[in-house]
Amino acid sequence: MADIHTGSCLCGEVSFKTSGPLRGVVYCHCTQCRKQSGHHYAATNVLDDNIEISGTDHLSWYRASKQARRGFCRDCGSALFWKHDDLDYISVMAGAFEAPSGLKGECHIFVADKGDYYEIDDGLPQFAASGSIVVANHDHD
């Protein structure tokens, strides 16, 4: 049986169900993630074919760069997704999953951009930029 995980935004208007493996949680400290979330992002990934999203009429997408967009609930404002145009997976915010998620931290990326008000001292690998990350048990460059 495949791993099934569910989650939603704060108000519940946008929900999702994933199947198959999830990548470990990557903590992104880039300026965009910090400005959108107020701190840093904590996200896993799932292959596009392994996620079902409900309530898409409540989902808004913000084009954050030429190659990626960020999905959030237009009602409660919950940040939910990050999607690169050219990749076959979607990042899903770890905090949106229902417990128990079974997720564990994997690494920190864009630590060169991290906020000056905190330290990263959990012992996980750190990368100045995006690094080389295994995505949903598939290698992607």
What does this 3D model show about the protein?
This protein is mainly β and 141 residues long. It contains 1 helix and 12 strands, in the order E-E-E-H-E-E-E-E-E-E-E-E-E. Strands 6-7-8-9-4-3-10 form a 7-stranded mixed beta sheet. A 3-stranded antiparallel beta sheet has the order 1-2-5, with no helix packed on it. It is globular, with a radius of gyration of 14 Å. The C terminus is likely disordered.
Short synopsis of the structure:
With 141 residues, this protein is mainly β. Helices cover 5% and strands 40% of the residues.
Keywords:
141 residues; mainly beta; 3-stranded antiparallel beta sheet; 1 helix; 5% helix; globular; disordered C terminus
Radius of gyration: 14 Å
Beta-strand segment tally? 12
**Which strand order spans the largest sheet, edge to edge or round the barrel?**
6-7-8-9-4-3-10
Helix content: under 10%
What oligomeric state best describes the polypeptide chains here? single chain
Q: What is the average of the pLDDT values?
A: 91
Largest sheet: 7 strands, mixed
Regions with pLDDT < 50 over 5+ consecutive residues? 134-141
Strand content: 35-45%
Distance between the termini: 29 Å
Number of distinct helices: 1
Topology:
Layout: E1 4-8, E2 15-19, E3 25-28, H1 31-37, E4 41-47, E5 51-54, E6 59-63, E7 68-73, E8 79-84, E9 89-93, E10 105-109, E11 134-135, E12 138-139
Parallel strand pairs: 3-10
Antiparallel strand pairs: 1-2, 2-5, 3-4, 4-9, 6-7, 7-8, 8-9, 11-12
